[in-house]
Specification:
Radius of gyration: 21 Å
Strand content: 5-15%
Structural class: mainly alpha
Largest sheet: 2 strands, antiparallel
Order of helices and strands: HHHHHEEHHHHHH
Low-confidence stretches: 4-8, 13-31
Distance between the termini: 66 Å
Number of helices: 11
Number of strands: 2
């Protein structure tokens, strides 16, 4: 009888091990947190680390999107002709685009990265080259978000409410990144952005509403 119990116990242990082995890749693929990303982004001078974390948390649906899990592409950077011509890895994904005021799902080819650092190097370069205001505001969250709305070739996304959504996400994530002083730091950076006349009046209103806990969308 004891031998039977040993056998059943062995089977249970093997079953558990197989289950964990099967689940492990999925866990690893989605294990990144906003704080992990923020710490990694601090190594790149062209980006505001908090702004990058806010931007990418929004784009990936808080790190749950397939593009992030399978391609480590945190900001929806598409694979242009030069990328494809070089034989760089791509991933085909449906994404939401605003066309004619309506949201539609469009299948596009996006850049695929092996690691967060490879993505951040490319992301940092894109911010520096195409979103110079964001690059100049690498110490100010509101200036950084504003810059994503005013790139050389237009805003980062086609979404007409993009600024509002990034502002809302910034207020949501600030306590995790900045700790107890988060509200003071966000207000201080708002005053700084005002002093340099970076923001438009409607953008200031959106930020103030979000800081007061009001709905901004």
């Amino acid at each position: 009888m004891p031998e039977v119990y040993k056998f059943l116990r062995l089977c249970a242990l093997l079953g558990c091990a197989l289950f964990l082995a099967a689940a492990m890749p999925a866990f690893e693929a989605s294990a990144s947190t906003t704080m992990d990303f923020y710490r990694a982004a601090q190594r790149y001078k062209a980006v505001n680390a908090f702004g990058a974390a806010v931007h990418c948390a929004h784009e990936t649906g808080d790190w749950r999107s397939r593009l992030w899990r399978d391609g480590r592409n945190g900001a929806g950077i598409k694979a242009n002709r030069a990328w494809v011509a070089l034989g760089m890895p791509c991933i085909e994904v449906y994404s939401g685009e605003e066309i004619g005021g309506k949201s539609v799902a469009v299948r596009s080819s996006f850049r695929k990265y092996k690691t967060i650092d490879k993505f951040l190097r490319d992301y940092s370069r894109k911010v520096r080259d195409d979103y110079p205001l964001s690059a100049r505001c690498y110490k100010n969250i509101w200036g950084y978000i504003c810059g994503l709305y005013l790139g050389k070739n237009g805003r980062w996304a086609t979404d007409g409410k993009y600024f509002q959504k990034l502002t809302k996400k910034a207020v949501q994530l600030a306590p995790e990144i900045y700790g107890p002083s988060w509200r003071k730091r966000l207000h201080s950076q708002l005053e700084n952005a005002r002093g340099f006349k970076i923001l438009q009046k409607w953008q200031e209103d959106v930020i103030l509403s979000a800081l007061r806990g009001e709905e901004v969308l």
